[in-house]
Amino acid sequence: MEPRREQLLIDPQKCTGCARCTIACAMKHHSRIDPALSRIRIRRFESQDLNVPVICMACEKAPCIKVCPMNARTRQTNGTISTDTDVCIGCRACIYICPVGSPAANPYTGQTMTCDMCADDETGPWCITACATEGALTLAKSGRLTAAIVRERANGGRKIYPYKTGG
Amino acid sequence: MKVLIIGNGIAGNEVAFSIRERCRETEICIVSAEAVPEYDPCSLPYYLGGDCRRRDVFRKQKRDYVKNGIDVKYNNKVASIRPDKKTVITENGEKLGYDKLVLAHGGDLFIPPIDGIDKKGVFSCKQLHETQRLKAHKGKCAVVIGSGAIGIEAAEALKKKGYEVHVIELMGWILPALFDEPTAKRLETAMESHGINVYTNEKVLKINGNKRVSGVVTDKREIKCSTVVVATGVVPGVGLARTANIATERGIQVDRYMRTSVSDIYACGDCVETVDACTGEVAMFQLKHNAIEQGQIVARNILGDHIKYLGAYAFARAHFFDTHAVTFGKTMRATDCILGDKELIEKENGGDYLRIVLLDGKVAGGQAIGQYADDIGFFIGAMWRKDDMNRLRKKINQLTPTAAAHSWHHILMGHLLQPAP
Questions:
Q1: What's the CA gap between B150 and B41, in Å, rounded?
Q2: Domain range holding A86?
Q3: B395–A47: do the CB atoms touch at under 8 Å?
């Protein structure tokens, strides 16, 4: 398996929920201004005044690859996972098993779609350009994204909501 | 070292290719009962319905085996195993030696003892050659016996092919092993709205006809039809293991390293009995993702690693035209015989439906249809981590804005779990 070269980092505290990234994503992949066609989605929590951009994490042991009945989910050379639209029958198994609820179903074809880090564009993912002012989406190169940083970020949640394991 | 793999299914291939990925020297031989390279049984109903082409069913091509130096013996069934001599004997009388043997021959279709089940026009949808025969068959009316995942998908496929379809289920609702009644009834309504007749609580007594099928008799009615599809489930193939005195229960028994009771024989895939990763109970989950994981564990253990298999997990989905349903963990009915504080959370919003089973405040299982299903992954995670949902429900209202950013998936689950006002 190819090592992941780069990764999108999200910062929900900076996200204003303006949805520019979703429009940029739909423009890049479908040439249409339609947030429903975006591979990045913003979850809004009215009660907490919080917006969370959700993207594919490209898990190392991705469950979506295993559950797909058509083997349409394949890992790409840049480490992302994408759906082969020739084969996908739109059963949505990958959406259901996803631990972050990331793959989105294309409302027009029913097939799923996932972030490919805009692999064919050298200037980098379009959503990051769209989010330049807020800075809620940033790109981490593989050198920067060490296990320590990942762990530190993950610990943010654990401090607030410590798990009681076992029992 | 010579590794002999019995079965050319998903598990068997995963073992072969995982070994080859790590080690070029190992001699690998697969004994396949069928004449084709590895294909995906999950996709057969879609091939039947015309959603995908025949070549999309295959996971491997014959040249992939040649390229990787894997010897495949097509059309070869193993008759018995001689662990004392480290050989297997095929039905052609051929003797094959091994250093490590992997049993990955999967399950056999359960054929119910119904009068006339051997008539022409009775098909199954588990293997490629059977599905091809069914696809080539022409008829107007089809009866599907059994409503498991294969039965439901076959019914949809036959409907797409233009058949008039009837589904007969012995239990009280369709997909009885996967769904509880309220979820299954919603799927049933969806099927009926597409013109498929579903009869639950009915038993098939007889298949009529001389040589060819002309009808099906149940305890409540008689249906005239030319095609019968048997989809009454899969039983693990334990017969071969018994020839080598390998311990079997419902399936082949394996330890945490996927070893059977006889040394140098491993087993994985549909034919084994494993533990549930969440509850630790002995269970059988004949699902694709478990087969893949087990295959990888076997491969690594054969190569000398000592890797423990954490257990299988239940996750399945069923879809019917545009109704999508998903299930994970235990159904409410499966928790009936477990002691503990049970709570059922149901949410309904138009056609969308969510059902979460809590056992002592922890997620034990759940089902969803429609919009709610998109977030079911969070609950699967919560089940794995054994999150205390009662605590979470209290906690989410006290989170400060900075804290909320880190635990947004808890907020989402907390909102869904609030009891209806």
A1: 10
A2: 57-113
A3: no
